[in-house]
Amino acid sequence: MTRAQQVGVIIGLSIVAALTMLRASDPPLLRLARNLTFDEYQRIKPRTFENMPVRIVDIDEASLRELGQWPWPRDRIAALVDRLSEMGASAIAFDILFAEPDRLSPRNVVRDVGGIDPSLLRQLPDNDEIFARAIADRPVVLGFGISNEGNYRPPVKAGFAFTGESPFGAPPRLEAATPLRPQLEANAAGLGHISLNPGATSTVVRAVPLFLSDGEQFYPNLALEALRVAQGASTYVLAAAPDVADTLTDAKIGDFIVPVTAAGELWLYVSPDHAERYVSARHVLAPGGAPPEVRAAIEGSIVFVGTSAAGLQDIRTTALGQNVPGVSLHAQTVEQILSGHFLSRPDWADGLEILSIAIAGTLLVVLTTFVSPAVALACGLAITALALIASWLAFLYGGLLFDPLAPIVSASITHFAATAFRFLVTDRERRAVRRAFGQYLSPSLLYRIEHTRDALRLGGDDRELTVMFVDVRNFTEISEQMAPTAVVGFLNTLLDALSRHVIANEGTLDKFIGDSIMAFWNAPVDVADHAGKAVRAALGMRETLLRLNADDAFGFGKEQNIAIGVGIHTGIACVGNMGAEAHFNYSAVGDTVNIAARIESSCKDVHFDILVSEETAQALPGHALLEAGMLALKGKSTRTKLFAVVGDEKLGASTEFAELRCLHLKLIEALRSRVPNRKILSAAKLKAAKLDGLTDFYRRISRRADHFVDHGKTG
Fold first, then answer.
1. Within a 10 A sphere around the Cβ of 14, how many other Cβ atoms?
2. What is the Cα–Cα distance from 622 to 651, expressed in whole angstroms?
3. Which residues form a coiled coil (predicted)?
4. pLDDT tens-place string over residues 248-298
């Protein structure tokens, strides 16, 4: 080990240690980045809205306009309870505080008028008493809030049992609560706190505390109490960690088990706000009775009563970036429990992420110092891809939340620092050479020059290549309608996007010929599965072109789509430096190149965008290929059997394609035998309609019956 390498290792490992300790301390910025990553996962794949037996009776703007401003008198709230009970609600939960006496109650209004006989006051109705009678012996859950004053604790309507160590210190602390009206508190079937993110600094509600604790008693939240009351359950069963105090793992409510964080929180897996979730309060209180569809929605449902009116200031932000009423998050909590679609972040996730930073960083330092920055970069990219894929798959299939960002950023910083040191200290001369020649030569050729003695000489070698030609369809017509500068801009946009797939699949870009691309695989260095990689590049071009057309990247309007033809052939060709001693190109020539070019031209006759020769097709086991016929290529004495590339191995293994291939083989036999084939052709068309690009192929295949007959020599 040289001194420079020793210094590089020491510096690299010091950076790794610093990054590991930084992650272990988990500063707010890292927590924010982690939460934003998890938010993005939910935006990509939100929980699907399902028509659950959960509804929100919404005191919306229309209800306030029709029935009067808020607060409503509690005899109206009592009427709401009566209506919902009569319609068969399994539980009625109010995301509303009833802490003060109803100032609109007749008794309270008259009391403020002087000279009224006290006996008359007792005869006047009291709205709080009316409301209390309405909720008595009914499945009504009232909400209470957290207070910073006093020491009031609400009564708990359910029992609690737990396994493991004492968990009373796990949930957020309840110092005091807002007192409810005594008669309401006594008659309610359940009481639950309505706080969604107590003590949180972020306005985004990502997790809700299912319980609060004062150190001696648990207090459930509104959603959990509604679920308990709806099931007629009397006890919560909490599972605590067996060897760690003040840590929760899950909660059982009736028939449902809910995974929770160590603090007893539920990670919200939200769905987009949906109109079916809401029922306007004015429809429930309609003078003639609720409409049938409202009754059907309420019957058997857990009903949350809350408000979406902007003036009542109960609007929260979800992980999807939507602003929704707070009552919606209570409803979504129950929906999530009923659906069984949970998110969780295991207790060992932090340890795994810290360990991954240390291991990945050390690996990159060693590779960068002793092997090469390119190998380290490849490993870094593999780590990045693995972290992203593993994190995404864990979220998608297991609802697990693992942070890919911290390991990726740490690995990137480590690789950058180690590579910078090596390039600055040990690779100075090599960087100078690359800067000088990199402006003129392709990366693959530069690699060959650097690593091959006598590379800068004329001559070539015969070797098996897979050659690709790509051409823009109707380019002449397109260019006639454009200014020359616009044509250049169009070609630059298209060819740059398409050629990236050649490079990404280890191909060599030979040249751009006007609106065409020539590329080949397996030179100047050996490329495993070069035919497969060429086809993957072609399929990538197809997808890229679809996206460019959909985005109107060329500015032609979405009604005018650009199309390409791709021809691929595998065979022996001569590849090497060709030209003059003073100026030459690294290129390939031979019959293989000519055949690839002719196959690309045949795309017009076949009406399909990607065609390969039989030699290439033999190197593509499992791919979705369809025989396209025996075509006469210019300059060839015999016809050439071609295949249409419909898709990759995944599509090739699908049932849909297997059925199409079976129909296609029957159709070919019919074409060869000249037997009427309308029924088979119709069936193939119907099956092909589900796959992109095959419509024209089958629409015109009957006119090409001659292509499926073996003619032997063509002259």
1. 12
2. 9
3. none
4. 989 999 999 999 988 899 999 999 988 899 999 999 999 988 899 999 999
Residue 695 CA to its chain's centroid (Å): 31
Tokens standing for 133?
């009678």
> What is the structure's pLDDT at 582?
55
CB under 8 Å to 137, separation ≥6 — which residues? none
DSSP of 356-406: HHHHHHHHHHHHHHHT-HHHHHHHHHHHHHHHHHHHHHHHHHH-B----HH
CA dist., res. 482 & res. 73, Å (int): 71
**Strand residues in 59-151 grouped as ranges (E):** 91-94, 140-144
Alpha-carbon distances, residue 447 vs 136, 210, 508 (angstroms): 84, 61, 12
The widest CA-to-CA distance across the chain, in whole angstroms, is 122
Coil, helix or strand at residue 549: helix
Q: Which two tokens stand for residue 73?
A: 């008198």
Contact present, 588 and 461 (Cβ < 8 Å): no
Residues 6+ apart with CB under 8 A from 445: 524, 586
Residue located via tokens 């993957």: 536
Q: What is the pTM of this model?
A: 0.58
| Torsion of the alpha carbons at 417, 423, 424 and 429, rounded to the nearest 10 | 180
SS3 532: helix
Distances (CA, A) of 394 to 344, 349, 650: 10, 12, 22
Beta bridge partners of 579: 584
Pair of tokens at residue 45: 């794949």
Task: Give the start-to-end residue ranges of the domains of the chain.
Answer: 3-30+345-436, 49-339, 460-620, 648-714
Burial class (CB in 10 A: 0-12, 13-18, 19+), 557: exposed
Neighbours of 526 (CB within 10 A): 11
Structure tokens at 325: 């009423």
pLDDT tens for each residue of 634-672: 888 889 999 999 999 999 999 989 989 998 888 888 888
Three-class SS of 221-249: EHHHHHHHHHHCCCEEEEEECCCCCCCEE
CB of 333 closer than 8 Å to CB of 266: yes
CB burial of residue 320 (10 Å; 0-12, 13-18, 19+): middle
436 pLDDT exceeds 80? no
* Residue 63 CA to its chain's centroid (Å): 37
Both tokens of 481, joined, read 């309608």
Number of Cα atoms under 13 Å in the Cβ half of residue 602: 28
CB 303 within 8 A of CB 327: no
Average the pLDDT over 141-163 and give the result: 90
Instruction: Tell me the pLDDT tens digit for each residue of 226-256.
Output: 999 999 999 999 998 888 888 898 999 999 9
Q: Could you give the residue ranges of the DSSP H alpha helices within 607-693?
A: 614-618, 649-652, 655-673, 678-688
What pLDDT score does 430 carry? 58
Measured CA to CA in angstroms, residue 697 lies from 112, 362, 604, 689, 693 at distances of 87, 54, 10, 11, 8
Answer whether 19's CB lies under 8 Å from 361's CB. Answer: yes
Q: Please tell me the predicted confidence (pLDDT) of residue 702.
A: 80
Cα Rg, the chain, nearest whole Å? 36
Report residue 418 as tokens.
């180690």
Asked if 192 contacts 92 with a C-beta cutoff of 8 angstroms, the reply is no
Beta-carbon contacts of residue 400 (< 8 Å; ≥ 6 apart): 343, 344, 345, 346, 349, 394
CATH superfamily of 460-620: Nucleotide cyclase, GGDEF domain (3.30.70.1230)
Q: For residue 282, what are the CA distances in angstroms to 60, 64, 279, 291, 302? A: 9, 8, 9, 11, 18
* Position 437 pLDDT exceeds 50: no
Kindly report, residue by residue over 55-97, the tens digit of the pLDDT.
999 999 999 999 988 889 999 999 999 999 999 999 999 999 9
